[in-house]
Amino acid sequence: MDEYEQFKTTYFAECAELLGDVEVQLSSLSDGSQDPEVLHAIFRAVHSIKAGAGAFKFTQLAAFSHEFEALLDRMRDGRIAVTEQGVNLLFKASDILSAMIEAAESKTQQSEDFGKEILDEISLIVTGKLAPFQTIKNSDDNQDSQVNQESAPDEKLTYQITFAPKAQLFKHANEPLLIIRELKSLGDLTSIPILKNLPSLAKMDGEEAYLAWNFELISNVRLDEVEEVFEFVTEDCDLEIKTVSDNSEPEDEIIEKTSVATQSSDPANQTAKSPVTAAKVTSIRVDLERLDRLVNMVGELVITQSMLSQQTNDLPSEQFPHMVRGLEELALHTRELQESVMSIRMQPVKSVFSRMPRLVRELSAKLNKKVNLTTIGENTEVDKTVIEEISDPITHMIRNSLDHGLEGTEERIELGKPDTGNVTLSAEHRAGRIVITISDDGRGINRQAVMKRARERGLIAETATPSDDEIDNMIFAPGFSTAEKVTDVSGRGVGMDVVRRNIQALGGRVSIQSTPGKGSRFTMTLPLTLAVMDGMIVQAGGDKYVIPIPNIVESLRPAKSSLKRLPTGQSLVHIRGHYVPLCSLHRVFNINGAITDPAEALVVLVESEEFGTTGIVVDELIGQQQVVIKSLESNYKPVPGISAATILGNGKVAPILDIEAIYRISQQELRNSPVPDDSDHSDVSENVQDSLASKEAATLAAQNAEIPTPSIG
Amino acid sequence: MSKKILAVDDSKTMRDMVSFTLKGAGYDVLEAADGLLALDALVSQSVDLVITDINMPNMDGISLVKALRENPSFSSTPILVLTTESDDSKKNEGRDAGATGWIVKPFEPEKLLKVVQKVCG
């Protein structure tokens, strides 16, 4: 089988991997694992090795793996109990398998009785002749291989065949036509269809077989070769094959049994001497720069591909079927390519999380607090660039929890809390993003102190009455620090505002939930990758915007009757018993020429941890597309409400919306705009009049939040 | 147009060999490493034949056959299961699930082609 020579390299590489798997699974088996999947996995590995060995004619390896597999098969279905000796035998067998593979790879000839002792032991156990460990059931099938040494008859025979398919023939997707064709290839064929079962057309069921045939085949092939034609349909048809020639007597079959159990001269030595192949390492290290280049190129490819498909969208597919199909395949492959490239860069957050216990240990000693850190979800994977960026924010938030969040030991005892404070760091995937939370069971946020400080700093108006949540999240405001005195641990002038800004620069969000006396929880969500994402292209006025798909719940065209407006000016849409607040894209970005009446426009429902569900009012949905993310900060400057930008198929830049920022802007706008007359509160379209005025305020307000005030400390 | 065949096997060696043999005979060959990936591949396209291994992680060959037979688009697509002499019972299990036929591993290229021609022409 020389034509398979070229696959040997793959085969041996695969063998090394499979042997590694076997090793791992065997270890867990010897550790007492009862998981049936362990034996299945070993079985699969040995099975794959055997299949290749057979194909490449490594007879010794094939024979050995065959017995090995038979043993595993009996172990996994419980016919042979998995005892300690059993596992030991499996270990020995895998050593021999490994040595045999190595010999085959290096093309060294092994003595014929290499591994014979183990092979014999296995054979005897498999055939039930030896029971070193308990045999539960006798093996029910005989593994003796039969070597059929029939030879083809010299003279031509006449076969008379009656073939009547049953209805279920089609259920297995067999096709009588192909069978007849194959029969014809064997010799001279005369066929007479039997039509007596054929119903009238009206009664015919396309799924049923009605025809039958009588064949006469004159050929020099053997009976079993004729029978083989019907190999797959024997149970799905009535079949009769008769030979008309005198030579119809069945020939004697010469059955050769494989010899079993001849003792080898020095088998123990053989096994001991055989070197055991260590599983080869199947991963390589790649320079990150090369990887980045790859990612960038794939990013460009994605853009080119979407450009191509956009420009050929109107191509009549009946006129250019190959072109259209080619483009479809290109889209599919581009996507697959991009996904595989992205997955190369995915790494578990463990590398960051594992640094935290040390930080906590050092800090707790310095602060003289007892702290217990729990980490959850260390194996959550995220893009390498994200990993690099989350280390600092996490460190900062943990410092914050330890310093400000957790009480001192004495204080905790006084409060009746356990003296050891708990900090939990966890990571998980949610809606295409990674969510990292840092929670503590400390004192929670001192809202009065926060309000006092915020007023002092002029972060909020004297008269403002923010909600608890809003107060809590003020700790992220620029230049904010509530620490009574500047400590060595936190409050070095780099406040939570920097943390938030850094996270936002990554397209992420951070917020805090706090219960006084019970503790606080930082929640940080980040995109899994910083390079591409799925986006919905929407249009407002003449401009196109991208809404991240993971945020989108649904989109709808609201009926006029389902639209309401609150006295505050907030528009709502009534959907399935719930009122959902609306924010109009044209108001947030002051877009001219956009549809202003939500009843005429489209509403895209988006969801976020920060505000729940809201509806974004846009003119039109253009379509879903994978977009390559280009940072606005590094290429232009940060713009409120926009997290990044992308290049569309037509070469134009489209902003990617930061829906939470948009929601905040529209809320601020409502708060800052005068409450409209009660009289028109149900007429949404007239609300647009004050949009320009409020626009100014919104822009100012938004800018306000972005101008860093000098930090203290 | 040449016929399209989906080869499903967790062993790359096997996939490569099946694919090499069939491509050499002028077939179009797609590959999948397990049952789930095979179903993924079949979401967007149809094939003229599926050849699947039985022992695979995630989703084995028998479950794949069943899943395909339950799908009206694939109820009449021929499916061959790859078996070894040691799992004779698998042959029947494959049949019961709705497989069209089987190929016994290890196989010679000619045998593979013969069986493929037998079920899909």
Compact description:
The complex is a heterodimer of chains A (713) and B (121). Chain A has 713 residues and is of the alpha+beta class.
Outline the fold blueprint:
The complex is a heterodimer of chains A (about 725) and B (about 120).
Chain A: H1 8-30, H2 36-55, H3 59-76, H4 84-105, H5 116-126, E1 157-165, H6 176-184, E2 188-194, E3 212-219, H7 223-229, E4 237-243, H8 267-273, H9 288-311, H10 321-345, E5 346-348, H11 350-353, H12 356-367, E6 371-376, E7 381-383, H13 384-405, H14 409-414, E8 421-430, E9 433-440, H15 447-456, H16 468-472, H17 496-505, E10 509-515, E11 519-527, E12 532-540, E13 543-548, E14 552-556, E15 563-565, E16 571-575, E17 578-584, H18 585-588, E18 602-608, E19 612-618, E20 620-628, H19 632-635, E21 642-647, E22 653-657, H20 659-672, H21 691-706
Parallel strand pairs in A: 6-8, 17-19
Antiparallel strand pairs in A: 1-3, 1-4, 2-3, 5-7, 8-9, 9-11, 10-11, 12-13, 12-20, 14-18, 15-16, 16-17, 18-19, 21-22
Helix pairs in contact in A: 1-2, 1-4, 2-3, 3-4, 3-5, 9-10, 12-13, 13-17, 20-21
Chain B: E1 4-8, H1 12-24, E2 28-32, H2 35-43, E3 49-53, H3 61-70, E4 79-84, H4 88-97, E5 101-105, H5 109-120
Parallel strand pairs in B: 1-2, 1-3, 3-4, 4-5
Helix pairs in contact in B: 2-3, 3-4
Number of strands of chain B: 5
Level-2 CATH architecture of chain B: 3-Layer(aba) Sandwich
CATH topology of the largest domain in chain A: Heat Shock Protein 90
Q: What is the averaged pLDDT score of chain B?
A: 86
* Percentage of residues assigned to helices of chain B: 40-55%
- CA radius of gyration of chain B is 13 Å
- Please give the largest β-sheet of chain A: 6 strands, mixed
Structural class of chain A: alpha+beta
User: How many domains in all of chain A?
Assistant: 5
Considering the protein shown, what is the CATH homologous superfamily of chain B? Response regulator
Strand order of the biggest β-sheet of chain B: 2-1-3-4-5
CATH superfamily of the largest domain in chain A: Histidine kinase-like ATPase, C-terminal domain
Q: Which strands sit side by side, in order, in the main sheet of chain A?
A: 14-18-19-17-16-15
Give the N-to-C terminal Cα separation of chain A.
Answer: 78 Å
The largest pleated sheet of chain B is described as: 5 strands, parallel
How many strands in all of chain A?
A: 22
CATH class (first level) name of chain B: Alpha Beta
Q: Name the overall outline of chain A.
A: extended
Principal-axes shape call of chain B: globular
